Amino acid sequence: MQPIRVLLGPIPPLPGAIIREPIELQRDIQVSEVGKGESLVDAARRCTPDVILAWGGANATALRDEVRRTLEVVPRAMVLTIMADGIDVVLHELRPVAESLGELAPKDLVRAIRSVTRRWDSD
Predict the structure, then answer these.
(1) DSSP assignment, residue 94?
(2) Judging by DSSP bridges, how do beta strands 88-93 and 78-82 pair with one another?
(3) What local confidence, expressed as pLDDT, does residue 48 receive?
């Protein structure tokens, strides 16, 4: 079975460490990160992820545009956006869909990652 490829977008250090730890502990998940000075689009092109974790931050419009451009490069990827509060997560797909997954603890992100990759397998 192929590992689930997860790309971690630029996330502030403290929430990044909290989010990264439970994901990196999973044997079936391979984690890559956006490099210093690299755009999310370029990183997605480089590692062709199944799931992208992006930080919502304060500029929702810029993030939405970046997610759209990224999904044009890797259309089968799912983007989980962790909102600025660090709790709420939104799922984006290439199809015009943005679905709130509600509040997720960092350990619940692992289940969300596996869940969204199974969506593609069932389509």
Answers:
(1) T
(2) antiparallel
(3) 93
